[in-house]
Known about the structure:
Blueprint: H1 2-27, E1 34-36, E2 41-46, E3 49-52, E4 61-64, E5 72-75, H2 80-88, E6 92-96, E7 105-109, E8 117-123, E9 129-136, E10 142-147, E11 157-169, E12 172-182, H3 183-191, E13 193-200, E14 205-212
Amino acid sequence: MKKRIMFSVVLFVIAMLCIPAYFIMQTYGVFQKEKVLSDYAIAVDVQGKSYQTWLITNSFAAMDKKGEDRQLYYRMDTSGLENLFQLAYREYEVKPGGDNPFLDGQVEFLQSEHKYVRTENKYENAKDFVTLLTLMDREGDVIYTYEQTGKGDDNLVKSIIHQGMSRTSNRGSGPARDPYLNITALFREKLHVDVKLTVDEEHKVVTIRMNKMEGK
């Protein structure tokens, strides 16, 4: 009887210790397949050289942790989405040089005649509304829509934790979780643009390469 009680107490103590351990591991994104690129510089491949792009923010970008064909993700509620479309349509110019010895210069985006990301409020009544985010191609055709719920949509938007970050709300503290769009899948399917990532772990650079798919 005493052994049974002691065993139950030990199990209870272990369970209590596992709860904070689980929270810590969840905060650091241990259980997810993606990671936010806050520890890397983001660069763009132009004719085999890597150019930094300031407007595509590393803390808003994510990729698969493993795999040969890693997917690129970007936060749905940020302005950098527009610049990713500009990369796909080559609406930029490169400025060689700079003081970073690991990069060949930087990308400067051109003034575009097109609007690729549009937001509007969809009212349910005079008080309540949801924000609808619409993505369009160069022809102005809608290629994706997302209600800004802050969550994934069981399609191309995934809920990804920013590893090591927590967020406090009126419900308490929890891991920093945000909606990220699968850029690789969307651009491949709708823009016929192939998105590849090269990861340089030694120099902490993730380079994005976008090319028009053959025959498209």
